[in-house]
Specification:
The structure is a single chain. The chain has about 280 residues and is of the alpha/beta class. Helices cover about 40% and strands about 20% of the residues. Helix 7 runs parallel beside helix 10.
Length: about 280
């Protein structure tokens, strides 16, 4: 088992080095993809520094291109598995090695994506649990899965890439398996909480750019994969967004405009329509 780890960076904080230290020792090589315009300054742990085989710095192009470039690098380098990591994610101490051992023991030859427990400290009684979806961060893709299911959908740019891949994986007869040994700590957005009588809403408080891509992606996915779409997730991530923006968040005007554009483009079902691509490097 030879693991290539892809870490996507965007204005990384100093804590990113500590996050990388939680899995660098278990990876055979690291591929750093820096989306920070102009490049970021990042001090890496010594152990991680020795394993970096490519460090791309350039314009912000989202995560789709980073994922597909990592797949090409995996094939060229003869790696057997791809680990995909967000800069704000870290494995709980000692759990990555246990996660890796369980993945290495998997025998089923169907396409599969392995995922750890995310922000859940209690282990299940089962070593393996089939689950519906996954997030990119912390996931392990065997090489044969990537060959059979194909490339990631770059046109989604940021959001929904993992969801779309999961739908395609299931169409190919594959599945997503949660490995109980792995435990990942992962941050989501910049959450805000307010209290309205008995209602305590939590907003993920995304930027206008992310509001656009989330609305666009999930309405596109609802059209492209009607047999799999989670309508509750679409309602939460798309249709409830204006209420959270108006009641709780700043930048109300830019966010509502971004939401409207995302809804219009997502309903059209054409990912070629992208209102925010040029804004990603401002």
């Amino acid at each position: 088992m030879r693991i290539l780890a892809l870490i996507t960076l965007f204005h990384p904080s100093p804590e990113v080095a500590d996050n990388m230290a939680s899995y660098a020792s278990g990876a055979d090589a690291l591929f750093l993809w820096d989306n920070t315009p102009g490049g970021a300054v990042l001090s890496l742990p010594v152990e991680a520094e020795k394993k970096v085989i490519r460090y791309r710095r350039g314009a912000n192009v989202g995560i789709g291109k980073a994922l597909n470039e990592a797949v090409r690098l995996l094939e060229e380098g003869g790696f057997t598995h791809l680990l995909t990591m967000d800069q704000d994610s870290a494995f709980v101490p000692s759990t990555f090695e246990a996660y890796k051992r369980q993945v290495a023991g998997w025998q089923d030859k169907r396409p599969v994506v392995f995922v750890p427990r995310v922000n859940v400290s209690r282990k299940t009684t089962e070593d393996w649990v089939e689950t519906q979806g996954f997030i990119v961060s912390g996931s392990i893709f065997p090489r044969f899965t990537l060959s059979e299911v194909g490339a990631f959908e770059e046109r989604l740019v940021i959001d929904g890439i993992d969801v779309e891949y999961g739908y395609r994986l299931r169409r190919a007869g594959g599945h997503v398996v949660q490995v109980s040994a792995g435990e990942l700590k992962h941050e989501l957005g910049y959450p805000l909480t307010k209290r309205f009588l008995c209602w305590h809403p939590v907003s993920l408080n995304y930027s206008p750019l992310r509001v656009y891509y989330i609305a666009r992606a999930f309405l596109y996915l609802q059209r492209a994969y009607p047999e799999y779409v989670d309508r509750r997730l679409v309602r939460k991530l798309v249709w409830m967004r204006p209420f959270y923006i108006v009641l709780m968040e700043r930048q109300k005007g830019p966010k509502l405009l971004a939401w409207f554009r995302g809804v219009c483009h997502g309903f059209g079902g054409r990912l070629e329509r992208d209102a925010y691509r040029e804004r990603m490097n401002r």
